[in-house]
């Protein structure tokens, strides 16, 4: 038998799976014939394949995640290939050089796969899977364009009119842009579409349109602007501007971006909850108004409680603080009036006009200032 049943692969933690879950999963020992069968399988459907050495610790750790995947992701087909039977074969056939390795095979007549890079957790692997199988660019028509534009967080549609074949170069640039967004996991929820129909008046308009349902932004640019200068740069800038959240969440990973612009930062520390959403909604207009000078951001008050303390706020609860990046001065909001767009704006105006004194950590009795904290 080429395929070992689950009961036989005791070395990998998957052996403990209930039978029902095992259906979407095959465990194969590497041999020329078993790989042939695997090739046939991957032609039919997307399939995640783990290349493992079941006796090794790292492969066993992945086994646990694989089990979680199988349990949580009912629509993902999985295989594990035990390479210990013939390591050379795995290396030669799949270009696998370390274990465990994860590949996502595409359903196609020729064998083609995507490499998984990143932390080998069930969550990250599932995220990679769903991002990978979504087509980068959808085709939209008159009947479903509205649904496309309202049903996605952010929808970017390129209208080619019916003259699409004449605009092949532009089309390729748009597709490659969509593909580049694709791999960036923080920007989930941006969908790209292509429309190829003449508009109601029968005109072949060339236009790119972006609808950002989170930020309530709707923008478009037409042919004259699109075709001047570097198209790909223009497309990229247009999409970046439309997709970037007006009030993003500040984390260790992205904070540098904000410092580099030299704008002052208005941080709102908030525990993970709907309060963040309410704040973003409340501040949207204000953030837009001061966009040129200020970054409005939210910060997870639990994760970065040290940062709140370092800026004169109480740890773990909601609080607002303005930081001038030019000189490092911080202004924690300590007024008795609740935080709202109006109260924050008057606070900002007082800071700008020098009526508000920056916070001095030394004034705090017995509390150390954590001046080195970034957030
Ligand atoms: C994927 O799993 C489903 C069961 O969820 C199964 O019906 C289907 O045949 C599997 N496809 C492949 C190629 O293994
Ligand atoms: C491993 O696979 C290679 C390539 O197919 C083959 O030449 C070799 O005999 C196999 N080794 C074993 C131990 O099966
Ligand atoms: C819109 O409809 C067309 C034609 O039926 C279809 O090919 C396309 O995939 C649909 N697009 C979306 C985003 O549903």
From TrEMBL:
Record-linked PANTHER family: PROTEIN DISULFIDE ISOMERASE
Cellular component aspect of the GO annotation: endoplasmic reticulum
One of the GO BP terms on file: response to endoplasmic reticulum stress
Protein name: Thioredoxin domain-containing protein
Signal peptide feature range: 1-22
InterPro entries membership: Thioredoxin-like_sf
Keyword Zinc: no
Source species of the chain: Podospora australis
Annotated keywords: Signal
Keyword Signal part of the UniProt annotation: yes
Lineage: superkingdom: Eukaryota
Family: Belongs to the protein disulfide isomerase family.
Any one GO MF annotation of this record: protein disulfide isomerase activity
Pfam families xrefs: Thioredoxin_6
Membrane-crossing residue ranges in chain numbering: none
